[in-house]
Amino acid sequence: MTFAIVRPRAAPKLNRFAWLMGLYAENHGRLSRLFRPEELGEGVYVSSVGDGLDLRLDVMAQHAYTVELRLSYALIDPLTGQPDPSAYLRHYRDTRQVEATHCYVGRRWQDAIGLYPPPSQILDHRLRMNTFLGKWLQYLGERGHGVGSLAFEGPLPSAEREAIDALRAPLDDVSKRGVDNPSSVDER
Known about the structure:
The structure is a single chain. The model is unreliable at 178-188 (pLDDT under 50). The protein has a six-stranded antiparallel beta sheet. The N and C termini lie far apart (70 Å). The protein has helices at 16-35, 109-113, 119-143, 158-177, and strands spanning 43-47, 55-62, 66-73, 86-92, 97-102, 150-154. It has one domain. The chain is an alpha+beta fold. Helix 1 runs parallel beside helix 3. The radius of gyration is 20 Å and the shape is globular.
């Protein structure tokens, strides 16, 4: 009599980074189906489906491979005077991904989890933000928001444009220094 030894095989594990990239791809599909952001010009768009809770989509910048967006309701946070909830998004055209970069006014990942968090904490934070975004986009689709309910309201207000430019200034400064000029990089 012969016996076969059966060894249980562990199911392959999906690591958290692969999971995050999958979320980015799912969010791209949802956002593109809902609003087609790559076809929108810079400005403020409002989606109203008659439920008294208008959705605001700000196209803050169009670049060659990315679109910078803010998705929020027409509700104002009494503490900051800014729309809340808000999700700041980067729509990557070339890789077909959408990333939620931060979900509250003035709360980039550095503000939420510190300046030098361990990589696992950054990954956890991004997973939470992008899971939230996926659920929100799904909810918006179920409520009837989409290209058909989206109307151009006008250009971004000058105060918001200045705030966007102020956020970009440190990044522009770093990119101007460049890696070709090592003397311009701060020693740590």
